[in-house]
Write a structure and sequence with these properties.
Layout (H helix, E strand, L loop, with lengths): L3 E6 L2 E6 L10 H15 L5 E6 L10 H6 L4 H23 L5 E5 L3 E2 L3 H5 L3 E5 L3 E3 L2 H4 L11 H5 L1 H10 L3 E2 H7 L4 E3 L4 H13 L3 H11 L2 H22 L2 H14 L1
Parallel strand pairs: 2-3, 3-4, 4-6, 5-7, 6-9
Antiparallel strand pairs: 1-2, 7-8
């Protein structure tokens, strides 16, 4: 069983996060499946790569249940966090280096580190009912997935910090206003919107699109993102084993039950 489903549609390859019973929350197996699917898609020379999620959510970030299951010792918890966050960051870099345009159909909430998967795409169609929210300060985690490595460059440092300090919920309309998404609409309309973008790509030369993306995400820029993501991971690991963080995870889980 794979936690990522692949679909070929109108010249594009769609990758569906498929853990809907857990709102596509991230675990190492899902991240591994995603990286495998991205690598396989790159070999197929698609017009575009599209990310979306099965069920009612795009992805709600790291599965707190997975962290708590490995909280028997600090060594085990740290190793699990290293595997999950490190894998997520590698997946983000895989997306940034993908040889074709990358899009996202954000069908529902996207929170925590999963936001980085959206930030690594070029064009986002977001559902009217979707939202983006960090939640780190509510649990005690350090931000990962590009909340400090990618988001400030997209919307400005002050705004990115304010969102994280206040755990602000960004609505779909606000995401469009901020430039985090290109358009919004009902969930059933998202595939058609993506199809229209893919069709537009087909009207031009694929080599131009590839070179454009390579210029934007050149090796030096990706290396800087890697450095920032490594910094996020290091500080995430510093916080994950603190007693306050463990209590924060338990308390957050109880409130969400």
């Amino acid at each position: 069983m794979s936690f990522v489903e692949t679909e070929y549609r109108n010249g594009a390859i769609w990758l569906w996060l498929s853990r809907p019973d857990r709102h596509n929350a991230l675990i190492p197996a899902l991240v591994f499946d995603l990286r495998t699917a991205i690598a396989e898609a790159a070999d197929k020379d698609p017009v575009a790569l599209v990310l979306s999620g099965r069920g009612s959510s795009f992805s709600t970030g790291g599965d707190l249940g997975g962290f708590l299951d490995h909280a028997r010792s600090q060594i085990e918890l740290r190793a699990y966090a290293d595997l999950l966050v490190g894998g997520l960051h590698d997946a983000i870099l895989d997306l940034l280096s993908f040889p074709a345009p990358v899009m996202a159909a954000v069908n529902g909430p996207v929170t925590g580190g999963s936001t980085g998967l959206m930030l690594a795409t070029d064009l986002v169609a977001i559902a009217e009912t979707a939202f983006i929210q960090p939640y780190y300060s509510q649990v005690g985690f350090g931000p990962d997935g590009g909340w400090t490595a990618l988001l400030p460059d997209r919307i400005g440092t002050s705004r990115a910090l304010a969102i994280q300090y206040r755990n602000t919920r960004i609505s779909a309309a606000e995401a469009v206003e901020l430039g985090l998404a290109a358009t919004l609409g009902p969930v059933p309309d998202l595939p058609a919107t993506i199809d229209s973008w893919v069709a537009d790509l087909g009207k031009g030369y694929a080599q131009t699109h590839q070179v454009t993306r390579q210029n934007v995400w050149d090796a030096s820029r990706r290396a800087d993102v890697r450095r920032r993501l490594d910094q996020e991971k290091a500080r995430f690991l510093d916080l994950i084993c603190r007693q306050g963080t463990l209590e924060g995870m338990k308390d957050f889980t109880r409130k969400r039950a």
